[in-house]
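Extended Data, record Segregation and condensation protein B
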Amino acid sequence: MFEVQMLGQLEALLFAAGEPLSDDKISSVMGLTLEEVRNILTKLNQEYENEARGLTVRKVAGGYQLTTKPELIGTIHKLINKQEVKLSNAAMETLAIVAFKQPVTRSEMEAIRGVKVDGVVNTLLDANLIAEAGRKDALGHPILYVTTDVFLTTFGLNTLNDLPEIPEEILEAKAEELQEGALFSADGELLPLKDEKLEIDNTSAKVADTDIINVDVEQEKIEIKPGS
């Protein structure tokens, strides 16, 4: 009888919360030990395994959430009458960078993607998929960004450790293509350093990949020697 009552209370608690609840929180609210909570969670999910039930308890974002079964998504879509928020490819790419490289700054995201990310970062912030997490101890003290619990819940992850493995060289490959001092166009595209013109006293000198540039600040002289 006690177990049946606890199952009902736990089910009501998860339903009312909506968002994931940690076992510590459930334990505190229900006045049970962590072991008792986990046993009841197991019992509740066993009942939901019955084909006649439309709910399940999933472990996500470090807690437990009552959700509909994935196979019933078609039925749920018939009920929902609202426009879904869809992320562009650019937003998804930027979100992936934050997820795998966090904490990360905007300039670091741009170095990997090769384009400006101001717009997509603001979109991700508005969607609460990423959040500010202090400032980096570097020149200018740029803002650092990390993913949120909403990100974990949205993608069905319990912790960031559940992210798939990705080779580090994939994330670094594009950054290695960029050189320090790279510029971006008004459209956010990377401007190549090749064939850039260097303005010196109303004269232009074209800088090739193999040219050697010597700068003498005191003599106000810039010497360009063809490389070998």
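Summary. The CA atoms of residues 135 and 143 lie 4 Å apart.
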